[in-house]
Amino acid sequence: xxxxxxxxxxxxxxxxxxxxxxxxxxxxxxxxxxxxxxxxxxxxxxxxxxxxxxxxxxxxxxxxxxxxxxxxxxxxxxxxxxxxxxxxxxxxxxxxxxxxxxxxxxxxxxxxxxxxxxxxxxxxxxxxxxxxxxxxxxxxxxxx
Length: 144
Fold this sequence. Notes:
It is built from 6 helices and no strands. By secondary structure, it is mainly alpha-helical. Helix 3 (54-78) runs antiparallel to helix 4 and helix 3 packs across helix 6 (123-143). The protein is globular.
């Protein structure tokens, strides 16, 4: 299945580590108290797409695949969950696993976020990212 140019990145959480902020909206609230919206993180200055090497992009694709799988699992696991303590524990565990996955791919989380930010804002780099993502997913399907 080919992924569309815009939807793959935007539709699955732009910078995948950021989704945890959305899951943790309810953290720190007493039972019966409404969740307070999380403060959006400060947007770092977005570097030029030319500053992203092919090696960084390859590592980012690998990290993205791993993080996206973890994101899907945690969202499924917490669907309909109301126990705030369990949600908090699961979110913290998932966040640690995502950071570990990014590092295993050869990136620091800040570098991953930087590359993903550029990918979402630069059409040419986004297309290159999607092409690499499609290639890796097709290769993975062939090995199954």
